[in-house]
Amino acid sequence: MYERLAPLTHDSLDDIPEPSETLRLVGHHDAREMLRSAHAGSKLHHAILLSGPQGIGKATLAFQFAAQLLGEGTPGGFDPRDPAGGLYRQIASGAHPGVLHLSRPYDDKTKKFRTVITADEIRRVSRFLSLRTHDGGYRIVIVDPADDMNRSAANALLKNLEEPPSKVLFILISHSPGRLLPTIRSRAQVIKFQPLGVDDLFEAMGALQVALPGTAEERAELARRAGGSPRAAILLTLHGGLEIAQATDKLIAGRSNDVAAAYKLADAVTGRDAGMQFQLFNAYALERLSEAATTLGHDGHAAAAARVADAWTDATRRIGETEAYNLDKKQHVMSMLQTLREQLAA
């Protein structure tokens, strides 16, 4: 039974360990070797940018490397972590004085996590760096994900990156490095992560004690939709993501507009405890539009690709407004389904 040590974050999943608690990193041998080699050769950059799709293990590697720099195993060895060790519990719970983990802050007034990492969060870096570790060891700042920083926060971080003290390591996690300031990217060593292969994907799910679907066909469908991301596979498996995608596809492909089926799907993803399902529906809708725009562009249909890309931009805006202003979610789902039918059947 999973016993949570880590603080909740904006993207925590029920009964799934946080990256700071994950005992073993699966895959990503090239990224591991780059860090191991840099540290062994005393060439470790003061800022590392871990870049790649969401949910594939970047934050897990960040915490595992931090733990080993601070004395848990051989730095760069990436041995499985010891859950009985005091260092493990300190880092996992956010109590280690040598590790500062920055993510979207919780807003006590709204009782929700902020949608961005604020400048106030980044200002914690200066206070953190002003303190000395008792053993003169590393101080490690993990920004997760750095993409979430607003402009003020990014500029504040840039000042810290320009003249870092000795034995300080910044680990920036990025799902979309194009959203970062070019000056931040230029001050960090970029390590690119690739989606996990199917075997590693299923091994990672097993390590997190998430059961795979029962049939080979279902497992193949899960692997295809997850795109090499254990987080995506977990969402698809435990939160009905596969069923939501299948129901959405059926409605889009239908020759006539099945209003009753559309309302049934809307009810399923907007219920009282369906916050994750609502996110999964929106993410899948955006994925379908993005795939369509890419395919049309590759096939030389520039005007059609631009039209679908504009629909993606508009859909993204509508999702944000629905969340920010607490608009009618059922109406949003119905509207989104109509957009998908119009754009993907055109």
From TrEMBL:
Keywords: Nucleotidyltransferase, Transferase. It holds the Pfam family DNA_pol3_delta2. Gene3D superfamilies: P-loop containing nucleotide triphosphate hydrolases (3.40.50.300). PANTHER family: DNA POLYMERASE III SUBUNIT DELTA (PTHR11669:SF8), REPLICATION FACTOR C / DNA POLYMERASE III GAMMA-TAU SUBUNIT (PTHR11669). This is DNA polymerase III subunit delta. NCBIfam families: PRK07471.1, PRK09112.1. Its EC number is 2.7.7.7. It comes from the Bacteria. GO terms for molecular function: DNA-directed DNA polymerase activity. InterPro entries: DNA_Rep/Repair_Clamp_Loader, P-loop_NTPase. It comes from Tianweitania aestuarii.
